[in-house]
Design goal:
The protein has about 800 residues and is α+β, with helices and mostly antiparallel strands. It is built from 24 helices and 25 strands. Strands 1, 2, 3, 4, 7, 8, 9, 10, 11, 12, 13 and 14 form a 12-stranded mixed β-sheet that branches. A 6-stranded mixed beta barrel has the order 17-18-23-20-22-21. It has a 4-stranded antiparallel β-sheet with strand order 16-24-15-25. The model has no long low-confidence stretch (mean pLDDT about 80).
Length: about 800
């Protein structure tokens, strides 16, 4: 019996090639999209799970509120790690680390700028366990000037040579000894290192200041530790060590500070949740989003459902062709159950063929998908023992879902009716088919709306008045290589008529600025608050065309500007300062308190991304602290200008690597995840519309097939082609209109939630909804018109003979 079902299924596939092709392709695209989405979601949820003790590793975050200024960061203070190991019983190991970007490393005649460089203490590899290819974990980072490198870095610098014991020089010429070679970090890790140098090489490793939070601290807890008790012990450390420092700064006890409505909390973020759930200031790399994964999963499921719906509609649309077959089978004794088995078997066979085609699509598309998402996902059917059984079960489920309605409809045909060429078209059947098409276009239209709003927001981000000018600015990334020659370098650059302004900065606009506690003395009052801080030189204002609201900016000719600061308007408003230029700020340092005069107030500008609102900002004058050197230019001959800048660099900093980016391109990268989300929406929208149009094509084919004789009669009685077209197109368009009406509130709700991720966002207006309605209507009209025109132009004599 099964062989008979398979034979009939293959015979029908060959007989109706176009129908079979459309059906299989629609199903295959839906399955392939769903597989890619599942691969991506699994990869997202597997971040950092490859570490043996990943479930027991936590990163310590700081969440604080001081004088109405709130902050939440991924960093903590330098002494925390050693104190955790010494005083907290739940902690097995605790490590501290700090990244350094654009580190220049040299071995013999090979010199590269390395981005994945970290400083770490001696227990780093006890927390982040990995395979040591060469060398030993013990004492790998204990001694000063020790270095551990990745497998990729070893091959890059040493080839097949054994790197152990070799000396590699850093930016300042200090040699570091290679102690070990380890496996590369997995792609699905929230941070990646190629070089890990011993923290004991730096003074930062012995820093005892509990009020400065610039270190990343990770704790490996003992198995089955109570996380609530661990966090309670963290708060005990805050009271014990941070409290006294705050009492000196605030002139009140820690309890009084908390009672005043402030808080200062260290809490534990599970390692395996950092990628999807941690979105605080100071993330090591761009994280994912659980909300985005959730939305993507729904989209993948909907694409699969749309494909299954197509199968139903397209199979039902061929019911006239199969009607006589059903009638003959019933006359010859076939039962209702056996007919259902036959049609479901055909559906499962089609589903299996669609699955095979989907596999081919996935294998072809996956390399491009990996490149787009910057992943290294693999599609391996034999990676787990349960993969094949789940896939086979999925084929059966998809086949049953897709073929259930056609199977039950076709098997219910009455022999005496269908053998006369008449097909029952019940009200419930029409309602179900119409509802399924409405659902398809509802999903498509919702994706259209989401896509348009995402791109409107990205366009707003790109063109918003940020309070600074990012165009025509070159950023030299390694300004510290100039050492004390920054002023000489700047003077040489300004000799070129195409260079308008130069300036150095510790933090680039768009970066996440560090925060520090200051005491403000103003209008006879004192207040302590957290400022976002950065060190700059006097030329930066002209480079980015910053505006002064009050007072003046730094001037290199004023010797006292090193003891002066410039703040922004938000700082003045937040603190309620009436006379900022008559006020001063006290900075707390290891050497003691430093009194800083406020000499100017900058007009507000977005110094961080538009995800964040403008915070109180404090700029200090420290020309030699610059990590970036910024150059404003006005020329169309960029290659010549870049050669001039590089030649000047080589004169002032001979032997130092020259590296640059354009400010507008660098700023554009801040919103790379949103841009990719927009692209994903476009692709999914296109796929959803394509598959939905196949469904609409099926419904149109079915309907027109039922109305063939009616159309012939209308034409015989004088109906024009235009009137016939209008009558039937009108019926189809109502489904599209209903779908659009349903999609408007859903699209508005979803995008309102997404826009909440931005501190600065567009107001959702009627435009995206109008575009979605027009676009989906035009696509639907194009799909329907072919079927209606074919019926309208048919010879009425043939139409009247149809039944």
């Amino acid at each position: 019996m099964l062989l008979n079902y398979i034979k009939i299924a293959l015979r029908n596939l060959i007989k109706f090639k176009a129908f079979s092709f459309i059906n299989i392709i629609g199903l295959a695209i839906g399955i392939a999209s769903c597989i890619l989405v599942i691969l991506f979601i699994v990869d997202e949820f597997n971040y950092d799970t490859y570490y043996p003790n990943s479930e027991n590793i936590y990163r310590i975050h700081l969440k604080a509120k001081l004088n109405e200024r709130e902050m939440e960061i991924a960093q903590s203070c330098a002494p925390l790690a050693s104190t955790l190991m010494r005083e907290v019983p739940e902690v097995k190991f605790a490590t501290m680390m700090q990244p350094t970007s654009n580190m220049l490393i040299t071995y013999e005649n090979k010199t590269y700028i390395e981005k994945n460089f970290y400083w770490a203490d001696s227990v780093f590899f006890d927390v982040f366990t990995t395979n040591f290819i060469r060398g030993e974990k013990k004492n790998a980072l204990t001694a000063p000037h020790s270095l551990v490198i990745s497998k990729t870095a070893a091959k890059k610098y040493f080839g097949s040579e054994n790197p152990i014991g070799k000396m590699m020089k850093f930016e300042d010429g200090t040699p570091y000894r290679v102690m070990a070679v380890v496996e590369d970090c997995k792609p699905n890790s929230h941070f990646h290192y190629d070089f890990v140098a011993s923290f004991s090489s730096r003074n930062d490793g012995t820093e005892r200041n509990w009020g400065q939070n610039y270190i990343y601290t990770y704790a490996l807890l003992n198995p089955n530790s109570n996380i609530e008790r661990f966090e309670s012990n963290l708060m005990g450390l805050v009271e014990k060590y941070v409290g006294p420092e705050f009492q000196n700064a605030f002139k009140m006890s820690f309890e009084e500070i908390i009672q005043a409505g402030n808080y200062y909390i260290y809490y534990a973020m599970p390692l395996t949740k950092i990628h999807l759930y941690s979105h605080v200031v100071g993330e090591l790399e761009g994280n994912g989003s659980f909300e985005s994964i959730y939305i993507l999963g729904i989209i993948g499921l909907f694409l699969l459902l749309i494909a299954c719906i197509n199968f139903m509609n397209l199979s039902t649309s061929r019911s006239a062709t199969r009607a006589k077959e059903v009638g003959i089978r019933k006359v010859l004794g076939s039962t209702y159950t056996k007919l259902i088995q036959q049609f479901l078997s055909e559906s499962i066979i089609l589903s299996f063929i669609g699955l095979l085609v989907a596999f081919c699509i996935v294998w072809l598309v996956l390399p491009f998908f990996n490149e787009f998402t910057n992943r290294n996902m693999e599609f391996n059917l034999f990676s787990f023992w349960y993969t094949i059984p789940i896939i086979l079960l999925g084929v059966i489920v998809i086949g049953v879902i897709s073929g259930s309605y056609p199977a039950f409809v076709l098997s219910k045909f009455m022999p005496i009716v269908v053998l006369k060429g008449k097909i029952q078209n019940t009200k419930s059947g029409r309602w179900l088919r119409s509802s399924l098409v409405v659902f398809q276009f509802f999903i498509s239209s919702t994706l259209f709306i989401c896509t348009i709003i995402v791109y409107q927001q990205l366009n707003y981000v790109e063109n918003k008045k940020l309070g600074f000018n990012k165009d025509n600015v070159i950023i030299l990334q390694r300004a510290w290589a100039l050492e004390n020659n920054k002023e000489t370098f700047g003077s040489e650059l300004l000799k070129n008529k195409d260079i308008l302004a130069v300036g150095g900065t510790e933090d680039l606009i768009g970066d996440q600025y560090s925060n520090s506690l200051f005491q403000i003395h103003y209008d006879g009052q004192e207040s302590r608050t957290m400022f976002s801080i950065s060190a700059i030189d006097s030329g930066l204002k002209d480079v980015f065309k910053l505006k002064i609201h009050e007072g003046r900016f730094f001037n290199k000719d004023y010797g006292m500007d090193s003891l002066s600061v410039v703040i922004n308007e938000t700082a003045v408003k937040t603190l309620g300062i009436k006379n900022p230029l008559e006020s001063y700020i006290t900075q707390f340092t290891r050497a003691g308190e430093i009194k800083l005069k406020i000499i100017g107030v900058l007009k507000d500008y977005n110094f961080e991304t538009l995800h964040l609102s403008i915070k109180p900002l404090l700029l200090s004058y420290r020309p030699n602290a610059s990590r970036y050197y910024c150059i404003r230019y006005n020329t169309k001959n960029l290659p010549e200008l870049l050669r001039y800048i590089e030649n000047t660099w080589n004169k002032v900093a001979p032997g130092r690597v020259f590296s640059y980016v354009f400010m507008d391109e660098n700023y554009h990268k801040l919103y790379e995840s949103e841009q990719k989300l927009g692209t994903i929406f476009i692709i999914c929208s296109g796929l959803a519309v394509f598959i939905a149009c196949l469904g609409l094509f099926g419904l149109a084919a079915f309907t027109i097939e039922q109305k063939t004789k009616e159309i012939g009669i209308r034409k015989t009685l004088g109906a024009t082609v235009t009137s016939i077209m209008f009558k039937y197109i009108k019926n189809f368009l109502k489904y599209v209109i209903i779908a659009n009406l349903l999609s408007i509130p859903v699209g508005y709700f979803l995008m309102s939630k997404w826009l909440n991720n931005f501190a600065y966002k567009i107001d959702i207006n009627i435009t995206p909804f109008a575009y979605a309605v027009i676009l989906s209507t035009v696509i639907a009209l194009t799909t329907i018109t072919y079927q209606v025109l074919r019926a309208a132009f048919a010879n009425p004599i043939k139409s009247l003979k149809y039944e």
